[in-house]
Amino acid sequence: MAPHLHGLPPPPKTRPPLLGLLLPALMSTVASLPALVPRVSYATGDGRRALDFFHLEGLQDFDSLLLSGDRETLYVGARDTLLALRVGGSGPLTLQSSVPWRASQEKTAECIFKKKSNETECFNFIRVLVAVNGSHLYTCGTGAFSPACTYVDLSDFSLAQMATGQPLDGKGQSPFDPAHKHTAIMVDGALYSGTMNNFLGNEPILLRSLGTQPTLKMDNFLRWLQPDAAFAASFSNGSFVYFLFSETASEFHFFEPLTVSRVARICQNDKGGEKLLQKKWTTFLKAPLTCKVPGQLPCAVVRHAVLLPALAGVAPARVIATFTYQWQTGGSVVCEFPLEAVEAAFAGRFKEMNQESSRWTPFTGTEPTPRPGTCSTGPSSAKVLTFLKDHFLMDGEVTGSLLLAKADTTYTRLAAEQARGLDGHPYLVLYLGTDSGRLHKVVLADGGGGEAAREAYLVEEIQLFPKPTPVRELLLEPLQGVLLVGSAQGLVRLPRANCSVYPTCADCVLARDPHCAWQRERGVCGSAPGLPRGPHPSPFPWHQDVERGNPRYACGGDIGRSLRPQDQAKPDVVLEVLAARHILVELPCPRASALASYEWTQGVPPNTVIPSRIGPSTGDLLLGPEADGLYQCWAEEAGYRHPVATYWVHGPDRPRPPDPSLAGVPVKPWAVAEGGQAAPAGSRSYWPHFVVVTVLLALLVMGSLVALLVPRLAALRARGRVQGDPISPREKELLTPGDPRGAQPPDKEHPDVLEVMPPGVVGGGGDEGIRP
Ligand SMILES: *[C@@H]1O[C@H](CO)[C@@H](O)[C@H](O)[C@H]1NC(C)=O
Ligand SMILES: *[C@@H]1O[C@H](CO)[C@@H](O)[C@H](O)[C@H]1NC(C)=O
Ligand SMILES: *[C@@H]1O[C@H](CO)[C@@H](O)[C@H](O)[C@H]1NC(C)=O
Q1: Distance CA 627, CA 584 (A)
Q2: Is this model's pTM higher than 0.85 or not?
Q3: Which residue's CA is the nearest one to ligand 2's atom 10?
Q4: What pLDDT is recorded for position 358?
Q5: Would you state the CATH architecture of domain 504-558?
Q6: Where are the domains of the chain?
Q7: Would you say the CB of residue 564 lies under 6 angstroms from ligand 1?
Q8: Under DSSP, is residue 621 helix (H, G, I), strand (E, B) or coil?
Q9: Average pLDDT over every residue of 569-594
Q10: Which fold has domain 207-408?
Q11: Is 611 in the pocket of ligand 1 (CB under 6 A)?
């Protein structure tokens, strides 16, 4: 974190002292956000969600990403270095070229002299990376608090300006301070950038540079932007360029400065004024942007946004934006704003500062024509420009519709797409990067109830980076279906879905991922084909139900090979467990979904539920010796109950025919335990329990010895040895470093306890270790 300077407003996390009274109320607004549990969570290194992680020794801050036109190459702006990586095809991310781009020694020395950190700040952090044409990129960096830009010649991946030794001035294009917010977009050869224009970071700017049109900037004197404006995103549509940012609201009077989010709009054909507003914007307007959970305070700070283009005849163009709170860390909301609603605000009333009351009030007079902020072609009249000078804030606010609210999570970047499900419906899919290096894949489905009933569903959570670190950049490449994510530590590429992690039709359908569908013929969950489209998926052998995630409907005959009442649903496979006498068996229950509830049953239906206290919290079931029979672990999710694991337990010497109700279900041997030979997987996992119980027992016994047997100890010592059964060498091994003498007395005092855990289980010694 950069130290904050004089003249800067307090950082957003600071708690304004006067808000002490209000704060509990504000906090409760966050506390009541839904938890929105990810259905499946993957840690880094989980093979089910393999990540292609790229990093290089000595390189950090992979902040800017740009895909080449052919999507084969990824250009990366890392700290002091530009990289070109090969991303096309299925191979790993490979470095093609790199070129160092450091601030000069002189600039670095100046930076350190100005009390900036030589370890975290006085470097060249790349902030702008855009394509100019087929042969050149344009890039800007903080240049050790002295913003600089250069062209990159792609023919040899060299910095064009370095030939002359002098980079271009990057003021207004890149911030000075790496901690300052920025946004930049290339439209028709012109670079539109929003950032801080000075060292202190209290002079925000919207700048147009490059290209053939005149360079335009803000007139700071007019205060169209508050000194703390923090840019989050920019995009273009039609003849406009839009900027999203947050700033202190001047129009509200509150105990403390109140942060609001804004959308600003400028015309691409703006040429600046002739006499008034020379080389300055003459089409700038801004409007408030709010996103809130009903009944709660709005989320104030826009963090990132994308424009989702219109889908012909289905969905209009929309802005998807993620917000956080002003006085609270953690907790995010995501809203969508139809571009029409944004335009409506700009077409509505203006606000103006009432000179008498010093308050912002709606302007009710006559507006000049052409209306300020419209992209008229001719030069604007002095009258229009004079009006615009203090009518740049719109009265109407743009209110978003809430897509999701999540407590305890700060989303830093997002990407969005419309994914067509098998039903032809375009589902909104969000990819959200968090400040701790995770990725959330969220699907919005309405359960068939229409737009108003739309609900966010967190398909999966993936830890992208080995150490928690904020996601700084997130790109979706929809043709290859991959995500590219940048952070301080490195880059990650991953497919947007891995359908193979869902082994059965029920799993595949319950996942509710529009990118995945069950293919009956092949018996796999695969990438949903772009086709078929239309309301009748039945002729096609693919199965999916994004709306409800109901396998009963979607899998039909594929579920457990029958459509019988749910408690009689047949398993896909029965695992036969041959458990030798006296062997304790631990039966695992794979818990695939955090949204399901799990329980064990014993016997054939109608079966009895085993109270959950018997199964440890891991969900595995520990069976005593000779507990023969049928055991099933059931999952219930979205109203659908199905067996996820079915075990038929009996001993080799106690053959039992499988229950007739399981006729037709394939039987597979699971773990065979015979006379203590190869120890079964289940028995081996019992080892930690045994050690724990043994150690606890030893402690208990030692305690009892002290408390109860002290008077007898002297006598025992006098006899030299405690009487009892000899201890096998194996047991000695097990009991060390505990005192074998201490562990001995329970043989006599608690024989029933020991019988439950015969040493044969552990040592593989079979029955020999059992005491009579
Ligand atoms: C997808 O999941 C399967 C099954 O768990 C796994 O074998 C495969 O490596 C995974 N692929 C990726 C790219 O994560
Ligand atoms: C930064 O400056 C301090 C004090 O001047 C020095 O001890 C340290 O080695 C410098 N760090 C680097 C990375 O140059
Ligand atoms: C691309 O842009 C660069 C920088 O403006 C310029 O030098 C070069 O001639 C352009 N190339 C083409 C093919 O237009």
Answers
A1: 9
A2: no
A3: 118
A4: 82
A5: 2-Layer Sandwich (3.30)
A6: 207-408, 504-558, 574-682, 690-723, 725-772
A7: no
A8: strand
A9: 82
A10: Methylamine Dehydrogenase; Chain H (2.130.10)
A11: no
Q: Which residue do the tokens 């040429």 mark?
A: 271
- Nearest CA among 349, 580, 314, 405 for reference residue 36: 405
Contact status, residue 498 vs residue 49, Cβ threshold 8 Å: yes
* Tens-digit pLDDT profile for residues 329-347: 788 999 999 999 999 999 9
The pLDDT score that the predictor gives to residue 756 is: 27
Residue nearest to atom 3 of ligand 2 (CA): 118
The mean pLDDT value of the chain amounts to 80
| Structure confidence at residue 2 (pLDDT) | 38
The residues, any chain, with a CB within 8 Å of residue 17's CB and separated by 6 or more, are none
Of 114, 115, 118, best ligand 2 pocket probe by most atoms within 8 Å of the beta carbon: 118
SS3 state at 574: strand
- Residue 625, token pair as written in the block: 């010796």
Ligand 2 close to Cβ of residue 119 (< 6 A): yes
Per DSSP bridges, beta strands 667-673 and 574-579 are: parallel
Taking residues 538-551, report their average pLDDT.
76
Give which of 263, 479, 516 is closest to 392, Cα–Cα.
263
The residue behind tokens 């027992």 is 697
H/E run at residue 352: strand 350-354
CA dihedral of residues 142, 145, 149, 154 (deg, nearest 10):
-40
Residue 136 has pLDDT above 90, yes or no: yes
Order the strands of the 94-100 sheet from edge to edge.
64-67, 73-78, 81-86, 94-100
* pLDDT of 332: 93
| DSSP annotation of 92 | P
* Nearest atom within ligand 2 for CA of residue 117: 1
Give the tens place of pLDDT for each residue, 159-185: 987 767 788 999 999 999 999 999 999
In angstroms, what is the span from residue 111 Cα to ligand 2's centroid? Answer: 13
CB-facing half-sphere around the CA of 240: CA atoms within 13 A: 20
pLDDT above 60: residue 761: no
Q: Could you report the per-residue pLDDT of 80-108, keeping only the tens digit for each?
A: 999 999 998 778 999 999 999 999 999 99
Task: Indicate the fold that domain 574-682 takes in CATH.
Answer: Immunoglobulin-like (2.60.40)
Higher-confidence residue: 184 or 23? Answer: 184
User: Which ligand gives the minimal distance to the CA of 212?
Assistant: 3
Please tell me if the CB atom of residue 113 comes closer than 6 angstroms to any atom of ligand 2. no
Ligand 3: which of 130, 136, 156 to mutate, most ligand atoms within 8 Å of CB? 136
Ligand 2 pocket, 451 CB below 6 A?
Answer: no
4 Cβ inside 6 Å of ligand 1: no
Q: Is 406 helix (H, G, I), strand (E, B) or coil?
A: strand
